[in-house]
Amino acid sequence: MIRKAPHGRLSMFYKSIISILDHMSGKRSSFIKKYGYLLILLIIAILLSWGFYDQKTHTLSLEGHSKYVIGTVIGKQHRKSRGDWAKYQYLINGEKHTGSQKINVNVEIEIGDKFKVKYDSLDPDNSEMIFLEPMK
Does residue 47 share a domain with residue 82? Predict the structure, then answer.
């Protein structure tokens, strides 16, 4: 059976799981039938833990190495059951960076509006737009 692995951070993890499942198929299929749900729960727990850790490290890095710049809203989108999101752009040393963020305040935001953006000086793509601080 040929399976394609996704690109990105999880490709190595995905390949490992596929390898384990392929190895366990055949004579060990009864193991999967008996403990397959535990394997799925373990995978879900690992992914949730990794996601929480990744988000926490980005937040801590942003707080520890933050600098500020003015950013411009370049797009708005309504995501079903997730609310309104804004896509924004900002310049650091002449280089364009973009980010997107949930609009979590009750403020009217339009494309072209300018707000303060907090970014990580070590990783300029790690940023957040501060909607409560509009710039003129």
Answer: no
Q: Over its length of 136 residues, how does the chain's per-residue pLDDT go in tens digits?
A: 444 444 555 566 666 777 776 665 555 566 667 777 888 888 888 888 887 767 776 776 677 788 999 999 999 988 787 788 999 999 999 999 999 888 888 888 899 999 999 998 888 888 889 888 888 7
**What is the domain count for the chain?**
2
Alpha-carbon separation of residue 131 from 47, 72, 85, 118 (angstroms): 31, 11, 11, 11
Q: With 0.85 as the threshold, say if the pTM is over it.
A: no
Cβ count within 10 A of residue 58: 16
> Do 107 and 125 belong to one domain?
yes
Q: For residue 100, give both structure tokens.
A: 């997107």
Residues 122 and 86 in one domain: yes
Of the candidates 107, 104, 112, the one whose C-alpha atom is nearest the C-alpha of residue 73 is: 112
Other Cβ atoms within 10 Å of 60 Cβ, number: 11
Please indicate, yes or no, if residue 4 is contained in any of the structural domains: no
